[in-house]
């Protein structure tokens, strides 16, 4: 059972109990019944806001995981305004920048090595000596 399913199950049970309690108040105390219905609506609104606050980070993490699996190192996230998530987003963006830099560096080295392997041996020796003399 996922965390999302557990949360939704908990919310449904809590609100079902609140609805049952409010239904009992309907005949005995109409004013308290209306107040409980307002409280129930406020509770549902806050629950939706809380749910969106929990789900959004998981969606960002899932999108980042998918991008890394696809070897797409160009995807960066924008801070969302929650301190904990912004820290995670900063670390993710720094990691992606480091991976992209490392990947470019490896491609440059591979290109250089392939170019050197195509040179004749005499030209390669001259190139190495010239580079050593420049230092």
TrEMBL record:
Instruction: Could you list this entry's UniProt keywords, alphabetically sorted.
Output: Membrane, Transmembrane, Transmembrane helix
**Which first-to-last residue range defines the signal peptide?**
none
- InterPro entries given in the database record: HAMP_dom (IPR003660)
Superkingdom in the source lineage = Bacteria
Membrane-crossing segments per the record: 32-51
Annotated HAMP domain ranges read 52-104
UniProt xrefs under Pfam families? HAMP
State what protein this is by name.
HAMP domain-containing protein
| Protein species of origin | Hymenobacter humi
């Amino acid at each position: 059972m996922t965390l999302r399913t557990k949360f939704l199950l908990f919310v449904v049970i809590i609100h079902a109990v609140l609805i049952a309690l409010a239904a009992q108040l309907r005949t005995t105390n109409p004013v308290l019944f209306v107040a409980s219905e307002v409280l129930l609506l406020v509770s549902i609104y806050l629950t939706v806001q809380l749910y969106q606050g929990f789900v959004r980070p998981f969606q960002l993490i899932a999108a980042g995981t998918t991008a890394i699996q696809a070897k797409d190192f160009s995807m960066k996230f924008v801070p969302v305004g929650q301190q904990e998530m912004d820290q995670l987003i900063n670390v993710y963006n720094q990691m992606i920048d480091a991976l992209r830099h490392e990947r470019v560096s490896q491609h440059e080295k591979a290109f250089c090595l392939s170019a050197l392997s195509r040179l004749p041996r005499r030209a390669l020796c001259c190139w190495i000596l010239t580079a050593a003399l420049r230092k």
